[in-house]
């Protein structure tokens, strides 16, 4: 990311809010299984308690990250239309001459094969770029390049 708070699209915000809701529910469920620390149990019980406590910590960390991200997005304002940001649809031309229209997203979504997360090598390279800009990024086969052709799709109004 660019260091400044990054805006996110309405769809990305909705997905993060749903994940946050799911995490809060999961946290309630896990917290309800923790025993009173005064209860004495065998080593297996203690190991289970430690595992659940670790799970609670992981859930709390993810909840904090999502809440921070949503706050930052609120400060950042709307998705930019003149440069690549989270929520932007961008057409890029790769070094081999192929072009592809991609969506820069906040979180991975297996249902969207054209989604590139903003924290992936290509996503980070594209953030803040405008049409005509060249980018370099780390690809599985080594460093790769691409050129930002346009923002949005022909049917977009901005």
Keywords:
single chain; 158 residues; alpha+beta; Chitinase A, domain 3; 2 domains; five-stranded mixed β-sheet; 3 helices; 5 strands; disordered C terminus; RNA polymerase binding
Describe the protein's architecture and organization:
41% of the residues lie in helices and 20% in strands. It has 158 residues and is an alpha+beta fold. The chain folds into 2 domains: 67 residues; 63 residues, Transcription elongation factor, GreA/GreB, C-terminal domain (Chitinase A, domain 3, Roll). It has a 5-stranded mixed beta sheet with strand order 3-2-1-5-4. The longest helix has 34 residues. The two termini are 22 Å apart. The C terminus is likely disordered.
Give the end-to-end Cα distance, rounded to a whole number of Å: 22 Å
Overall geometry comes to elongated
What is the helix tally? 3
**Secondary-structure element string:** HHEEEHEE
Report the count of strand segments: 5
Radius of gyration: 21 Å
Mean pLDDT: 82
The number of domains is 2
Percentage of residues in helical conformation? 40-55%
Which structural class should the secondary elements be placed in? Answer: alpha+beta
Q: Approximately what portion of the residues adopt beta-strand conformation?
A: 15-25%
Q: Low-confidence segments, ≥5 residues, pLDDT <50?
A: 153-158
Largest sheet features: 5 strands, mixed
Strand line-up of the largest beta sheet:
3-2-1-5-4
């Amino acid at each position: 990311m660019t260091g400044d708070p990054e805006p996110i699209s309405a769809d990305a915000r909705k997905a993060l809010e749903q994940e946050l809701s799911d995490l809060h529910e999961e946290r309630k469920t896990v917290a309800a299984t923790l025993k009173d620390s005064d209860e004495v149990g065998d080593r297996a019980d203690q190991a289970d308690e430690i595992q659940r406590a670790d799970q609670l910590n992981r859930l709390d960390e993810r909840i904090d990250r999502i809440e921070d991200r949503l706050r930052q997005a609120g400060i950042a304002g709307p998705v930019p239309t003149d440069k690549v940001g989270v929520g932007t649809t961008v057409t890029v031309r790769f070094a081999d001459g192929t072009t592809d229209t991609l969506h820069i997203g906040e979180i991975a979504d297996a249902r969207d094969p054209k989604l590139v997360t903003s924290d992936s090598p290509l996503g980070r390279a594209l953030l803040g770029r405008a049409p005509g800009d060249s980018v370099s990024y780390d690809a599985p086969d080594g460093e790769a390049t691409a050129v930002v052709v346009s923002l949005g799709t022909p049917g977009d109004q901005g």
